[in-house]
Design goal:
globular
Length: 435
């Protein structure tokens, strides 16, 4: 059975409003994904869609103690090529590396992995003003439903919320020093260490949360994800994997600097990040780790570093981003690549397996969907997956709200600067509740 497809011309000034209507419309379904590139053109060669919405699963794939989870989805997609949208929790690592565990308390009920084939996909391609609807229903009916959506939440407010830190500043400093000792002893070279901010008994509307966050901190890999009564509002600046035919691209971020409204000072912060030996050292370690991960699936000799230490600006931070690409032999699925690269090196460290053990030892909360990935696979097998950072997670049943922030720890790290980086990354996540 083939999808019914239709395209609808949109006035360019309607882009903002049609996105809000798509977002509102998709929220009526029990499972939905909304992805927004926010008109970023940092990497024009790797931009496919301005936004996508996928709703109403026809088929759902989740792992149930199934180490063949990704290969089984690959087989299903090969037999029935269609759209797939989905996520992997950070804790899915335990099924890829059976000696690992995640023993912290869970606050959310996102499955460790979930991919679904949606009944309806809506998208706007980059630099176009055409909305395309692919569905097993009537595209014209869905388009009329979208046009009739009332944009209810643009002027709505959020309650004032004070977040607690899972690890207080004093204990955080102690843990940083302990991790530096592991590096000194040769246990690892770099480790991504994270802390949770959380609030109990919070009554919020998740759509308002995402809209406020997406307006305050628009990001190229933003996502709103509803999975039953679990919600994610994501303002990620980082891409994990992009597949275009036989080309695979990864763009890890390591290196963060604050921004200033003073133009001269802002340029200074940017230059300091560009020339920072510490940030360059962190970045190149993850570049090497990414090259090694991609080598499991790419043609020998095809992996290259297209850009090293690129500096890119976002509303509240400058980031150091490197671009690594390779060529995949036919037929290699994005699911093969995920099998060998997840979780991403930028959110773990090097060597990956050892630092994941240390993360479990020193962090005091379960990462769950944080530092996992969400994205899409097209019927032809092209794909794009982000790194889930700068995100808020909400359990609508328990009223639990949280985020994680962290950074790469090397031997040159100082406890105070690492703490300041976590505060900087949390700024927008907290500001929407206290503005």
């Amino acid at each position: 059975m083939n999808r019914n497809t239709a395209s609808f011309e949109l006035p360019i000034e309607d882009l903002y409003f049609i996105k809000l209507k798509l977002l509102n419309w998709s929220n009526q379904f029990s499972i939905s994904v909304f992805l927004d590139s926010n008109q970023y053109q940092h990497f024009p060669n790797y931009q496919r869609f301005e936004c996508l919405a996928a709703v109403q699963p026809l088929r759902i794939y989740t792992p149930i103690e199934n180490s063949n989870f990704l290969p089984s989805i690959k087989e299903a997609h090969s037999m029935h090529p269609d759209w797939l949208f989905g996520h992997l929790n950070y804790d899915f690592k335990n099924q890829l590396h059976h000696s690992l565990a995640s023993n912290q308390l869970s606050h959310f009920n996102f499955p460790e992995g979930c991919f679904f084939c949606p009944e309806t996909v809506c998208y706007i391609k980059t630099n176009e003003s055409v909305l395309t609807i692919e569905t097993f229903q009537d595209p014209n009916t869905i388009f009329q439903q979208l046009l009739q959506q009332q944009i209810k939440y643009t002027n709505a407010s959020l309650p004032s919320i004070k977040f607690e830190k899972r690890i207080n500043q004093t204990n955080y400093y102690k843990k940083i020093e302990a991790l530096r000792n592991h590096i000194k002893d040769g246990d690892c070279y770099e480790i991504n260490f994270c802390n949770e901010g959380f609030a109990h008994q919070v009554d919020i509307h998740p759509l308002i949360v995402f809209q406020k966050l997406n307006e305050l901190a628009p990001a190229p890999y933003a996502a709103f994800y509803k999975h039953q009564d679990q919600y994610m509002s994501c303002a990620s600046p980082e891409r994990f994997l992009y597949k275009d035919m036989d080309k695979i691209v990864s763009q890890p971020i390591k290196g963060t600097a604050k921004r200033s409204k003073d133009k001269a000072l802002d340029e200074l912060y940017k230059l300091e990040l560009k020339n920072s030996k510490k940030d360059q050292a962190e970045n190149v370690m993850i570049v090497d780790l990414t090259r090694n991960d991609l080598a499991h699936t790419c043609d020998i000799g095809s992996i290259s570093v297209e850009e090293l230490y690129g500096i890119y600006s976002f509303p509240s931070v400058h980031q150091m981003i490197s671009t690594i690409s390779g060529t995949l032999p036919t037929p290699t699925s994005i699911l093969d690549v995920l099998q060998h690269t997840f979780p991403m090196g930028s959110m773990t460290g090097a060597p990956k397996k050892k630092v994941m053990e240390l993360i479990e030892q020193y962090e005091c909360s379960k990462r769950e969907l944080y530092s996992g990935t969400i994205g899409y696979i097209t019927p032809s097998g092209d794909a794009d997956f982000n790194v889930i950072i700068r995100s808020l997670f909400y359990n609508a049943t328990t009223k639990y709200l949280s985020y994680h922030t962290g950074g790469a720890i090397t031997y040159d790290s100082t406890s105070a600067s690492e703490w300041e980086e976590t505060v900087l990354k949390a700024y927008n996540l907290e500001k929407i509740f206290n503005s």
